[in-house]
TrEMBL record:
Gene3D superfamilies: Sporulation related repeat (3.30.70.1070). The keyword Transmembrane applies. The chain crosses the membrane at residues 29-52. It comes from Pseudidiomarina piscicola. The keyword Transmembrane applies. Residues 1-22 have a biased composition (Basic residues). This is Cell division protein FtsN. The gene is ftsN. GO terms for molecular function: peptidoglycan binding. InterPro entries: Cell_div_SPOR-domain, SPOR-like_dom, SPOR-like_sf. The lineage of its organism: Bacteria, Pseudomonadati, Pseudomonadota, Gammaproteobacteria, Alteromonadales. It holds the Pfam family SPOR. One of its GO terms (biological process) is cell division.
Length: 187
């Protein structure tokens, strides 16, 4: 079926309806619903007045009581002196100021010396190039041949603690020299 070229169906006119008489066409008001709505509104208003706590007919506040005192009695106001500041009951403040604390700190055991290897190359020229870049950062490195002079390692150290080796490794990382590893080696 060709939907693009089809014609629209003709509009049908609705059939004429019979008119009802005027008396039936007017709706009658449901008086029961109206009475119920009025009762609900009255109950709501009464409930709000009850919650407010009083009659809303009394719009004027009660008159303040007049003072029966004579002006001479109210003018005499005697200020009592403040009580003295109590002394401190705590003595720990003075005790702590003069107290010395002794702490036993065991000596740190130093492990084997640490070496940091920053590269391993087949050509000695590449190892010397990395050694020069490390020397520009103020650190001293050495090139060690291994495997019958077929590999050349660039090594820094020895370091007594790993913290010293880490400090130098971070310095090299800031200079964009990455790949340095810290080992527990002994040469």
């Amino acid at each position: 079926m060709d939907y693009a070229n089809r014609k629209r169906p003709a509009k049908r006119k609705p059939a004429p309806q019979k008119r009802k008489s005027n008396a039936k066409s007017q709706r009658q008001v449901p008086w029961g619903v109206v009475v119920l709505a009025v009762l609900l509104v009255a109950a709501l208003v009464g409930g709000l007045r009850f919650i407010a706590g009083g009659k809303s007919d009394e719009a004027t506040p009660p008159a303040p009581q007049q003072a029966t005192d004579t002006p001479d009695q109210s003018a005499e106001v005697v200020a009592e002196p403040m009580p003295e500041k109590p002394q401190e009951r705590w003595q720990y403040i003075e005790e702590l100021e003069n107290l010395e604390v002794e702490v036993d700190v065991p000596e740190r055991e130093l492990g084997p010396p640490k070496l940091m290897q920053c590269g391993s190359f087949r050509k000695q020229a590449d190892a010397e190039r990395l050694r020069a870049a490390i020397a520009l950062q103020g650190l001293e490195s050495k090139v060690y041949p291994s495997n019958n002079n077929t590999w050349y390692r660039v090594v820094l150290g020895p370091y007594e603690t790993k913290r010293d080796a880490e400090a130098d490794r971070h310095k090299l990382q800031r200079a964009r020299i990455h790949g340095c590893q810290i080992w527990n080696w002994n040469l």
